[in-house]
Amino acid sequence: MAALLNRILRRRDQCTVSYSRFGVPGDVADDRPPPTSIVIEAFDDNDPDFIFMRICHAQKAAVASAGLGMSFVILLFISTFLEFDWDLYRKDLDALAIVFLFLFLLFGLIVHYDVIVGVKKQSPKHLIPFIVVYSLLIGSETVFAM
Fold it and tell me: Domain residues for 86?
C-alpha cells in the first residue's frame, strides 16, 4: 500500500492540466486566442427523445407519476391510520406511531410536490429531494431483501 501511495505521489506532477484559456493569474499562458463566439443549437422540445413511451411528453409523465405518488402516500397514510389496532399497544407506542405516520405523510407530500414545482418552474434543484429519497428507499430495500 505504501509503494502504491509513493508512486501516486511521485507521478502527481506529470498529470496536471490547466483548463484556463483566459489568463487567470498563476495559470500557464495559452498561445491560442480566446473564442469569440459560442454557437448553441436550437432546443427542440418536441424531439422524440422527450416523448415518454410514444404517449406523452416527459414533463407530463413526471407530473402524472408525482400525482400518483402523492395519491399513494395519502392512501397508505389513511389505510394505516384506520387499520392500526390502537387498543393492543401502550399509549407511548401509539403516540410514536402517530408521529411517524404524520411525518411519513408530510415528507411524502413535500417530496412529490417538489417534483411538480420543479417541472413547472423548469428547475432541477427541486428534483434533488425526490432523487435522494427514492435512491435511499431503493438502496434500503435492496439491502433488506438480501
Answer: 52-145
